[in-house]
Amino acid sequence: QHYNTVWSVAFSSDGRYLATGSRDRTVNLIDFESKKVLKCFRKIHSGYVSSVAFSPDNKTLATGSWDRKVNLIDVVKQTVIKCFDNIHSSIIDGVLSVAFSPDGKYLATGTWEKVNLID
């Protein structure tokens, strides 16, 4: 459950999971069949969570935020495995979108004016 506007939702490609990102600065990982929140990530972002995306193999969830951070979450272990700080350090606004390449080797992040690729 979120306590503010939900800005982003994404299904895993196998339909097992749903992820949500919110203005309340949280990310929820939901078991879609049972509709239960498996984990609410409350402290991984200090800004609004604007984008969530699953990797093609459904093992990783990427989250982007106005705090200019991108987090990678291990879906099975439900833990943050990597945090990219200041991914777009030359801008004021944060990360507005995240998307994995079809092969899962790259993560694209977007802002108002720029795209960045992470491999």
Q: What's the gist of this structure?
A:
This protein has 119 residues and is mainly β. It is built from no helices and 11 strands. Helix content is 0%, strand content 49%.
Features:
mainly beta; four-stranded antiparallel beta sheet; 119 residues
- Which parts are unreliable, with pLDDT below 50 for 5 consecutive residues or more? none
Please give the order of strands in the largest beta sheet. Answer: 1-2-3-4
Strand proportion, as a percent range, falls in over 45%
The SSE order reads EEEEEEEEEEE
Based on Cα principal axes, name the global outline.
globular
Total beta-strand segments: 11
Our measurement of the CA-to-CA distance between the termini, rounded to an integer number of angstroms, reads 32 Å
Helix- and strand-based class?
Answer: mainly beta
The number of helices is 0
Overall pLDDT level:
92
Largest sheet geometry: 4 strands, antiparallel
* Radius of gyration of CA atoms, rounded to a whole number: 13 Å
Describe the structure.
By secondary structure, the chain is mainly beta. 0% of the residues lie in helices and 49% in strands. A four-stranded antiparallel sheet has the order 1-2-3-4, with no helix packed on it. Strands 5-6-7-8 form a four-stranded antiparallel sheet, with no helix packed on it. Strand 1 (6-11) and strand 2 (17-22) form a beta hairpin. The termini are far apart. The model has no long low-confidence stretch (mean pLDDT 92).
